[in-house]
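Late entry, evening session. Most of the bench is empty. Finally got around to the prediction I had been postponing all week. Sequence below, unchanged from the version circulated by S.P.
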Amino acid sequence: MKKLIKLLSSRLFWFALTMGLQFIVLIIGSFYVSNNTYLLLALLLISLLCALFVSTRDESPDYKNAWMLIIVVFPLAGGLLYLIFGKKKIGRTAVRKILLTRDISRYGEKRLPSSELDEKDAKQIAYIHSVTGFQAFDQTAVKYYSFPDDFFDDVVREIRKAEKFIFIEYFIIAQGRVWTRILHELQLKRREGVDIRILYDDLGSINAVPKNYFLKLREMGFQAYAFNPIAMHMNPRLNYRDHRKIFNIDGNVCFTGGLNLADEYANDIIRFGYWKDNAVRITGPAVWNLTLMFLSVWKGISKSEEDFELFRPQLAMPSDGLVLPFADSPFDDTAIARNVYIQAVNNAQRYVWIVTPYLIPDSEMTTALMIAAGSGVDVRIVTPRYPDKKTVHEVSRSVYRKLVQSGVKVYEFLPGFIHSKTLVSDDRIALVGTANLDYRSFYLHFELSVLFMGGSIIEEVKRDTLYAIDRGEEQAEEKLARVSLVRRLIRTFFGFFAPAL
């Protein structure tokens, strides 16, 4: 009874119910207009025009095919569904409200000479810089967290050192032991006059904090906003979520990675077995990129003017490789995070190992993985055994057999749910960030990633990946071939629609 009451009183339940009812009404209502010739022709014309528009868009073929199928299956409602959920260009006013990070090159530093890098590494840095404006930095120290224990302790320690400002941008902030501890430290710093700004995604935190929680934070003296507040009606903005994790102290120290500010990430709440996650702490000039990410979004939401120069890092550390944090946005002209992954896979000579909670690669990413494996590169991917989203996990599993047949080794992490998002290759480069290997992260979310070249963190990420592989079960082709026909059909069905969901 308590669980039922909790469910019925949750914002997520009513949001999902409202969206479901609107979808049903839209589908059923579209059939009832068949008696009205003019409305029928209007809906068919909308669907036809949307189909033509989709076919000519510069999008992933998988994304276009999914929407084409939806329009074919629902010829009357398909066009309306695309206009609501599929069309990414939602108008200049809306884009300003959900400001994307771009045109920040005027705040950057000079790039390190490419002569100091391997040719492939130099080209990867050049690509990221050319499409995002973000720079690579040396004189930056890095600490890698394989588990959450030390992470939350270090966050508290760094909060206590804050002198000027603290910027917090998270997909999930959840009331509980973790957030209560952090909030207490933030309140102490606020009383000292430290400028504290907090952003959380409204949908990501929908069941984790009360409605309009940002108002309560303001009462405590913080500057706070909910990113892209959800509305109980279908609209194209629902898809665009802020999935980034930024905990920035004075512009000199910043934490990011997979960990959100919630108890389940610290394994205080057990939901899907042991929760395995990661994070990094960056100290030094490279924090500047993360400061720019936060301020660009903050400026758009708060509608305030900021002198970004006031927030530049004031700390330099002994160099430990190159560090390049970069942002991705649904309104960019290219899927930056996906392309960086593909470039890293294509550049691999000996091995490339990936950890992701959701494995739903598009056709280009799948092809790159298969070509690398077929070329003799040791390609390994780790996914969870116990998922947090069962439907999504079935889609992930639908990809296994094709990859395994090409030589890719796929492992499911047995102790529980693995939420890390990492890539490590050739003892040379590593990627750590917030982007999953799926369509939602690559095409619909505001994300960030950090590219590391050289330095001690490469070995740390490699060791952490081996930890997950050693505790994973390799997916054998013989076992995958024995999957029932019904389950295959279900996986294929969800997999085909995955790019549009």
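Two things to note before I forget:
The CA atoms of residues 124 and 287 lie 20 Å apart.
The longest strand covers residues 445-453.
Will write this up properly tomorrow.
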